[in-house]
Amino acid sequence: MSSDAKDVRTILVRGAREMARREGSRTIEAEHVLLAVAATAGDPAARLLADAGLTEDTIRAALDREWEDSLAVAGIAVRAGLLPQATPDHSRDPGIGESVRLLLERALNAEPKAGGTRIGSVRILAGILDAGRGRVARALQAAGVDRAALRARVAEALARGVR
């Protein structure tokens, strides 16, 4: 993705939708949004993620570990890297999933409220990090990410007016 990803529409339409398509997903979920943000070169939220050691590749690895761990709880041993790759269906247009609706709601309400009403990538990242449950929260925990410290850096950016 280019560095012009300045608002929610660009991240969701260009980035997250394509991530969902590549995975063969019927819906765009929070993990697709996080991957899209991380893949946006030069974006302030991507820099915050990279500073925390989170690139598109490290996030994918954490999501794979979370998936393996979740299946292991049910007694299913599987290695994500050994499974066949998804066959993307470019004719299918993934819809917005519930986790994205919730993250957008959290993004709108994220503190601090500085910087106007537009939801940019940093505010989206705040919405992602404010989720205490779900696949992304479990993946970040498995990756050893200090979510509280990252969220504090996001809050500082928002306070400076970075959206």
TrEMBL record:
UniProt-listed GO biological process terms: proteolysis
Positions of the Clp R domain: 1-69
Keywords, comma-separated and alphabetical: Hydrolase, Protease, Repeat
Gene3D superfamilies (UniProt xref): Clp, N-terminal domain
A Pfam family matched in the record: Clp_N
Molecular function GO labels: peptidase activity
PROSITE patterns, per the entry: CLP_R
InterPro entries given in the database record: Clp_N_dom_sf, Clp_R_N
Protein name: Clp protease
Protein source organism: Kribbella turkmenica
